[in-house]
Amino acid sequence: MAAVTALRSGCRAAGRLVCIHRVRSCSSIRFIKSKYVCVFDKSALKFSHQQRLFRTSAVSRGQIVQFKLSDIGEGITEVTVKEWYIKEGDSVSQFDSICEVQSDKASVTITSRYDGIIRKLHYNLDEIAYVGKPLVDIEIDTSKGVAPEEDVVETPPMSHEEHTHQEIKGHKTLATPAVRRLAMENNIKLSEVVGTGKDNRILKEDILNYLAKQTGAILPPSPKAEIIPPLPKSETVPAAPKDKARKIPVPVSRPIVFSGKDKTEPVTGFHKAMVKTMSAALKIPHFGYCDEIDLTQLVQLREELKPVAQIRGVKLSFMPFFIKAASLGLLQYPILNASLDESCQNVTYKASHNIGVAMDTEQGLIVPNVKNVQVCSVFEIASELNRLQSLGSAGQLGTNDLTGGTFTLSNIGTIGGTYTKPVILPPEVAIGALGKIQVLPRFNGKGEVFKAQIMNVSWSADHRIVDGATMARFSNLWKSYLENPASMLLDLK
Question: Is the pTM of this model over 0.70?
Fold first, then answer.
């Protein structure tokens, strides 16, 4: 009796006592050989004998699986962790998004292969993760199948109360990665926030309102434009004519920070890819060729087609016409749609016209490409460009969008400038850079001055396999298509 009383007191102090002599796994059921198992449940003591099935919820039965970063192709061995969509303690299902990583070629979303609970994140934001190394630890239910032996790691038991506190409520919540990150930074469970967006999607404002209710804070009002009083009549400056008004470049507003010392940062992501590509481009002897194009007729044609494209939900710029005209020219001069091997012994003529378009993004210079332009209409090219530009602005372009290019156009004119010297992207052999469109005076066949829409173009070609005459003839053909857009109809397929 005294022994039982002492044992009862020990259980009150420790909460739960489990004395296990040996654990043996059998298929997906776990048995225990023990001298005794004592489970304290408020006022009762229960003893289970040898070979008794272990069913108590006091100790977690899950096993920890190290979810490793798989090979994402293109010879990529390391990536940068840009965003976590989960945190430790979150429940995940198969195919749920875990994180977004960025290589030197593309951004990739990593999804879960298991149903379970996140127990450990092996990397912080902006840290380098390596292919084949653990990314997260996931606790899985062993009753649904045992994970591979080498992936299972030991973990200390976790109480039922801790498990309940960390587990997410059953239903799925709709929210963008940015909203999930905001919720995670403020330790807010999305299951407790009422979404006001479409299909009850949780918006950023919902998180801020929830946070304000919890902390009693008052959200600042939305910023409004400052109202500037008009000048007195005597100081009123006459407005310049609309056609003579000059566009003043708007400086990028960034806070001025003076730290007093230099800062060193590693070269990562797309910048790392640019270092590698431009270093390889230095080995190519570049041949340059420049010309100007009269786009007066094309400007009029685009203005007529813009409303039609808009009805179809597509924004129509000049670039689809430039790309299609380039493809028609490549049919006549296939050497410009080729590649030269590293030993300079073989030339491969590409069957597909995968024309790349250089884009300036917050992540750096990226060059996605429109696949199989030779079989696409101008409208289909415009639609694909809209998709690539949307994904590029969001930093969500995939590897397929960024690889496989055979020819490149860079529309530097959207920023400014007329002529430039574009650098070839290996293994391609040619690239074109387009300047801004300007209204300039020109002479017609009768010697009369007229107002023309002029654009300058600069070409670079690999002079090892492309001669100057070929580049000039290609440019002249491309120019003729753009100066007389109706002529493209003769060669369209």
Answer: no
